[in-house]
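explain this chain.
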Amino acid sequence: SMYEFAGKGSLQDILHGNSRNQKLPLDLRLDIAIGTAQGLTYMHSYGNQAIRHGDVKPDNILLDDKFVPKISDFGLWKLLREEYYFGKIVAGDMAYVDPVFLKTGQLTEKSDVYSFGAILLELITRKPSVYDEYCSLILEFRKVCEKEKSGRAMMDKEIATEEEDIYCLEEIGKLAIECLKEDIEDRPDMVAAVERLVMLKKDRMLKS
C-alpha cells in the first residue's frame, strides 16, 4: 500500500510533525522539491487523461526511506470527475488552495502550480503554511521580499548559512513567488519549474 511505501512518513511529518528533529540539509530539500515537481509534471502530461490533483499539500507527499517523494490522495480530482459541486467539499488546506480555483471553481494545472509554490516556501523556511487566521506564510514571505528584496530573513537558519546556499534558497524563493502569482497566466508550468530546480541542483554539484 501507499503507506507501507512511506517509510519516512509525509513531508508534513518531517517538516513540522513528530520527525521534526530530522536534519534536512538543503540538497535533500532540493531533491524533495524536484521529485515532487516531477511527479506533478508527470500527472499533468497525461494528454486527454491529464490529472489535476487539486489537493497538493505536505500531508499528501509521502516519502520513502530514501526520501523519494510520491504524491498521494487524488481525492479532489476523483470528486471533480464525478462532478460533485466543489462548494460542498472544500477539500484541501486553504493555505494550499489556488484562490483563482476558489473564485471560479475551475481546477487547472496552474492550481497545482500554486500549491507547489506554497510547498516550496515551507521547504526553505520550515514554517507551516498557516500560522493562524491573521497570518499566512505566503503573505509573510511576499511582504519580506517586497520590503527587503530578499526572503533571507525567513529562511530556515539550519540551512541558510553559506553564501551559495543562500543564493540557492533565494532562487527557490523566487520560483515559489512566481508559482503563487494571482494571475494564472503569470505562473510557470510544472515543466519550467522542474527545469529551474534541476539547474540549481546541477549548479550546486558543479561547485561542490
In short: Strands lie at 61-63, 69-71, 130-132, 135-136. The first helix runs from residue 2 to 5. The chain has a mean pLDDT of 84.
